[in-house]
Specification:
heterodimer, A: alpha/beta, TIM Barrel, B: alpha+beta, 2 domains, four-stranded antiparallel sheet, 29% helix
């Protein structure tokens, strides 16, 4: 199990180079980073995976983009939309993570979508940036949404990922701090550990439909 | 007014936190307002009154923050939600918790300062732009783009600057 921050934005999207983010991640207790629009590599013992975030595009364009990106080892994620959009995205082969569930509309992620996410092994991302930098109603809404997602996760057991969405090393938080922040939304330590290893689950090759036993 | 005997005093705990980015000038009063604001925003007035956070000491990039015993976890969570102090972007990393300020001072002394083997140039290029060195701490190099219009810090490593 590798402790993974499922989304960071190194330079030029942020103000820190990918090497510096890896160095910081090492001191904060991480094993792996998913860095947006960054080539893969290993820096200071931290594995850096390429992350592709598709947002603000209609479904047709998203399908085309996912087809293009499917060949590589990148972690492909799509921003959540309305319920119909999310259901369609979850069934797409090549999409690993649905992000921004806290900003989506009220019924964007329901029990049917949750079951589909579990069947297709698509993770739901818990973006901790509203918990860290949000204040007042923004943070309260995010916490409410995450609690709702966790209720569905306990029932349907779809994968979860945790991300800081850090644009700078100053936005990154230690594993211990993230665990404490997740306790605010009702996650226990085993739950947080599972979510940290969510990227392992979604990038692993799927179990074959037929198993040959000799 | 006579002081209370030790058994009747409130039990306190102290958190040692390091302020990032290194080299940031820390005003204890401003930091207290940031801590108080974060605590009240996250836990509300009732819990903030129980935690009673206070910035009691600052040494270099380390700061000792006091709270009531048993509320260290709540204070540490609140500290992780601090992103600015006045207009400066900062992050507070909790290093240790202790019952006395003196033991935290011991801890500060034991924290190793990264040794810089060779000198770092005062200027360098990264992504075809010229940057001025702002702070260097081992492998970590903070730079500011040259020119008076852009004063945003960039966080790089020495390897990044070597890409000339």
């Amino acid at each position: 199990m590798k402790i993974t921050d499922a989304c960071v934005y190194p330079y030029p999207n942020g103000d820190s180079s990918v090497r510096r983010m890896a160095l910081e991640a090492q001191s904060l207790g991480f094993d792996r980073l998913v860095a947006a629009d960054t080539p893969p590599g290993e820096f200071y013992g931290i594995e850096v995976c390429t992350g592709i975030l598709i947002r603000g595009t209609p479904l047709k364009d998203l399908i085309n983009r996912v087809k293009r990106e499917r060949i590589g080892d990148a972690v492909v994620s799509a921003e959540a939309g309305d319920n119909g959009f999310n259901r369609a995205v979850i069934t797409l082969k090549g999409v690993h993570i649905i992000r921004g569930i806290q900003s989506a509309e009220k019924n964007a992620f329901d029990h049917v979508t949750a079951r589909m996410a579990a069947d297709n092994r698509v993770a739901i991302d818990l973006d901790l940036s509203p918990l860290v930098s949000g204040r007042g109603i923004t943070r309260q809404r995010a916490m409410h949404k995450f609690r709702d997602v966790l209720t569905l996760e306990q029932r349907f057991e779809f994968p979860l990922t945790i991300s800081s969405h850090a644009h700078s090393i100053l936005d990154m938080r230690a594993v211990r701090e993230i665990t404490a922040l997740c306790s605010l939304i009702g996650m226990d330590i085993p739950g947080v550990e599972n979510a940290f290893s969510g990227v392992d689950i979604i990038t692993a090759s799927p179990d074959p439909a037929v198993k040959v036993i000799r | 007014m006579s002081t209370r005997p030790p058994t009747l005093r409130e039990k306190r705990r102290y958190l040692l936190v390091s302020v990032e980015p290194a080299g940031t000038p820390i005003n204890q009063k401003d930091l207290y307002y940031a801590v108080s604001d974060a605590t009240t925003s996250l836990w509300g007035d009732v819990m903030a009154a129980v935690i009673m956070p206070a910035v009691v000491a600052a040494e270099g990039r380390f700061v000792a923050i006091r709270c009531r015993r048993g509320t260290e976890r709540e204070l540490a969570i609140a500290l992780s939600t601090i992103t600015t102090c006045r207009d400066l972007r900062i992050a507070l990393r909790t290093v240790a918790a202790s019952g006395t300020i003196e033991s935290l001072r011991e801890r500060i002394r034991t924290v190793k300062t990264p040794v810089t083997e060779d000198s770092v140039p005062s200027e360098g290029t990264f992504e075809k732009k010229v940057f001025q060195l702002n702070h260097c701490d081992g492998q970590k190099v903070d730079v500011i783009e040259k020119g008076f219009k852009n004063t945003n810090r960039l966080f790089l490593t020495r390897e990044d600057l070597e890409e000339l």
